[in-house]
Amino acid sequence: MNMSIYFLLIGIPLILGLWAQFRVSSTLKRYKKITVSSGLTGAEAAQQILDASGIHGVKIISSDGMMGDHYNPTDKTLHLSEEIFSGNSIAAVGVAAHECGHALQDQESYALLKLRSGLVPATQFSSQILPFVILGGFLFHVTNLITLGIACYAVLMLFQLITLPVEFDASARAKMILQKMGIIQSPLEVEGVYKVLNAAAWTYIAAFVAVLGNLIYLLLVRRNER
Fold first, then answer.
1. High-pLDDT (> 70) share of the chain, %
2. pLDDT for the residue 222
3. Are 130 and 154 within 8 A, CB to CB?
4. Buried b or exposed e, range 164-184, using 16+ CB within 10 angstroms
5. What's the mean per-residue pLDDT of the chain?
6. Could you tell me the residue ranges of all domains in the chain?
């Protein structure tokens, strides 16, 4: 296959992903050093947001597991990394509020969140078998394995595509509610939360572009194998 096509479909998404990771890590590093004037920790801000929204069945947990900061709609738990849970920085309240945004989506039975949650088992299965499928397909030139790889990437692409509006909506809710409740007040705090959440959004975009690039690449490989 033409190397320019390979770079376009695989190389550019990889560079975008690395850039997105650098941007979010550098932005978080900067705003973890700036304390919010309200003095609230991420956990306290999350609890206030949930209470104000009439959500009383969600448990806020300090977690340093591989999943990091996330909301689990299955068992109604909001997981925050230790820095976010205990920190009283702009980054801490911004990230905590974003995860609360998912709890608000769950409360409202937000359709795309429910659809994404329903895709989790298929996504996990596809991710687990994909390396073996792709390796076998390329090593032994088995078209059926490449086709199975395409199916796996299609599932992952659908999941990432649905993730985009789910995450953007959660961030929009976080930005609005933090200001409405006075958890962030100064222009610096507002700017910081916006930058943290906007930087995080690029990681979701990069993930979608990467999966899409791999899917198109495999489709071209299968066409050439025939």
1. 96
2. 80
3. no
4. eebbbbbbebbbebbeebebb
5. 92
6. 3-225
Tokens of 192: 């910081």
The per-residue pLDDT for 144 is 82
Annotated active-site residue 99? The verdict is yes
C-alpha span between 61 and 36 (Å, rounded): 21
In sequence order, the 6+-apart residues with CB closer than 8 A to the CB of 197 are 94, 98, 171, 174, 175
pLDDT at 66 over 70: no
Query: Using one digit for the tens of pLDDT, what is the confidence trace for 10-47?
Result: 899 999 999 999 999 999 999 999 999 999 999 999 99
3-state secondary structure the chain: CCHHHHHHHHHHHHHHHHHHHHHHHHHHHHHCCCECCCCCCHHHHHHHHHHHCCCCCCEEEECCCCCCCEEECCCCEEEECHHHHHCCEHHHHHHHHHHHHHHHHHHCCCHHHHHHHHHHHHHHHHHHHHHHHHHHHHHHCCHHHHHHHHHHHHHHHHHHHHHHHHHHHHHHHHHHHHHHCCCCCCHHHHHHHHHHHHHHHHHHHHHHHHHHHHHHHHHHHHHHHC
Tens of pLDDT, residue by residue over 132-188, are: 888 887 776 777 888 999 999 999 999 999 999 999 999 999 999 999 999 999 999
pLDDT of residue 67: 59
Q: How many CB atoms lie within 10 A of CB 156?
A: 23
**Strand arrangement, sheet containing 77-80:** 59-62, 77-80, 70-72
Q: Active site residue: 44, 99, 167, 189, which one?
A: 99
